[in-house]
Amino acid sequence: MEAINLTGKSAAVTGAAKGIGSAVVEVLARSGARVHCLDIDELSLRAQVESWSAQGLDVQAHPTDLQSSSSVDAAFHSIAISSPKLEILANVAGVVRYGMLDKLPEEDWDFILDTNLKGAYLTIRRAVPLMRAAGRGSIVNVGSVQALASQATVAAYSASKGGLISLTRTVALDYAGEGIRCNCILPGSVETPMLRQGADLFFPDDPTAAMQSWGESHPLGFLSQPVDIANVIVFLCSEYSRVITGAAVVADAGLSSRLAV
What we know:
Oligomer: single chain
Strand order of the largest sheet: 3-2-1-4-5-6-7
Largest sheet: 7 strands, parallel
Distance between the termini: 39 Å
């Protein structure tokens, strides 16, 4: 298979300032795409975009709060001015807060669901008209293997990721006739700031050892790196995956295949 060439195509990526989102931006941009970078952390986003631009990558910063329809609308208004035809949307941004449901504050539930699930709705509804203009499009939502098998204290997070799978399938059906595909990727443990946050919270004495142990619990024996997931996402954005839509693609280093017996 030849290297993926996205020259002349435009993409939007949420959660672009760090972790998987940052890796997706780099892979897309190095494949030739113009990438519109969305993130709520404006300082980190602008620093990243400045660094990428200095390397000759075609990237633009759009500070965006995915919980706010007006913020998302403003970002896509700006995107449309630069890229009236959009071929790719990667919904990577995600947040987690931990707690049993009877202890979890309502604002934490809303924060997680509004970012992880409502945020995808808000971006998709604004991306679709730009994809219609392009005559095609590919949407990739980043879910989690925790949509399939959960853990304690992550009810809101798991619910949001399960919701993304259902959203993905319906969007795929709604827009298939217009050449717009929609898929969802389900990673396992990925070495990101979010995973480090969990290690710091639950294993403050030695979070690094905890992360290493989590990696070893996967059948392949290691934590995935952000670029590993980014490569799968970019494949799903390319013509090499043109027959894949409505799929929940598991990319979890084998984690969901193992029974705990």
